[in-house]
Amino acid sequence: APPIEQAEAVVVINPLKIVLIGDSYAAGNGARDADGGPNYAGPSGCYRSPTNWAAQYVGWLGSEGFQVTFVNRACSGAVIRQYSERKFMGERVVLVAAPADTPPEEVERIGLAGPCRTRYPGDEVYIAEYQFYNLDGHGVLCRRFMEPQTNAIGEDTDLVLITGGGNDVDFAEIVKQCFAPFLRDPGACREQINNALDELANVENRMVDTLAAIRARVRPDTRVALVGYPFLANNDDFELVYRRFGIWESDRYAAAREVRELGRLGDLGQQAAVDRANAAAGEDFATFVSDVKQYFAGHEPKPELGAGNPDRWMNEFEQLVFAENYHYNAEVTVSSEYCCDSMRRSERSAWEQTHPRVSTWHS
């Protein structure tokens, strides 16, 4: 009799759904394609990029044999409460052509079907409000909102990636007042840092609430990874000095040291938020990816005027779009290993232990 051939074992990997929510450090501000050009997609102003670190992480999972559905709902400028509430994005008045006696409600409906129509239903929404009529037509105020980011999360979600808290402490103003050439000022920087320090406890509480809200929307085995921020300066040395009449020093502030200390305290608050959320859930469903600062060491911006850090992985003040400065550059969004290194280590201790089908991720 001919020998019996043994069939090779077939490993079936279930599809995974990963949802990304957060702010500019999640969405992809500053990201570039392989040719060095901006590649933002989706609603205007969110700066979502298909080459952000999370998308690269998803790509790496695909190379490992996983079938991943990836949803990016992060949006530049978002504060934590806007993860579960609508985010106002702006408004404009448009003219709608219709007979003079058209009811306002019908004019609004025409506006929503035409000039105020969204291309991203379920993600972006317009609200139309009738304003006036003149010989040019009916005026309709179109107000644009992003829907709550957590709407994309449900029982079919396996992993939630999240950043948050930077905008709650007014990240953009800190960058402007502490580091932006010709705008930075020791007094204004000090004030921004003190205000941010005063807000850290509230940021922690908001993150606890957000993690709990996510937990309520997903399966018990769904995991959440809260990803930290890098430092905004590569060392403690940079100081701001104000000289009266350009001669007599009247104010000095250790801007880099204090901004870095704020970042360190922010990490402690993020870890505390995760610990509190896990304790309330009775299970470690969330993980804080805490080694971002360690991974970026030596690659942060250098705030000294005209100096620059040639090894930076973040834009300094080199981009015409201000929202891209002090965000990840092409070294991270195209060629860096950052997308996967921290996440792999984090998820080994968090997600894999409760998901046998992905227990060979790092083998």
Structure report:
By secondary structure, the chain is α/β, with parallel strands linked by helices. Helix content is 32%, strand content 18%. The chain has helices at residues 24-27, 53-63, 104-113, 171-179, 186-217, 255-281, 292-296, 330-333, 338-350; strands spanning 16-21, 68-72, 87-96, 124-134, 137-146, 159-162, 223-227, 240-244, 248-253, 286-289. The strands form 3 sheets. Strands 2-1-6-7-10 form a 5-stranded parallel beta sheet, sandwiched between helices. It has a 3-stranded antiparallel beta sheet with strand order 3-5-4, covered by helices on one side. Strand 4 (124-134) and strand 5 form a beta hairpin. Helix 2 (53-63) packs across helix 9 and helix 5 packs parallel to helix 6. The longest helix has 32 residues, at 186-217.
Keywords:
five-stranded parallel beta sheet, alpha/beta, three-stranded antiparallel beta sheet, 363 residues
Quick description:
The chain has 363 residues and is an alpha/beta fold. It contains 9 helices and 10 strands. A hairpin with a 2-residue loop joins strand 4 (124-134) and strand 5.
> What is the overall pLDDT average?
88
Low-confidence stretches: 347-363
Q: Helical element count?
A: 9
- Structural class of the helices, strands and pairings? alpha/beta
Biggest sheet features: 5 strands, parallel
Task: Tell me the strand percentage band.
Answer: 15-25%
| Straight-line distance between termini | 40 Å
What general outline do the C-alpha atoms trace?
A: globular
- Encode the helix/strand succession as letters: EHHEEHEEEHHEEEHEHHH
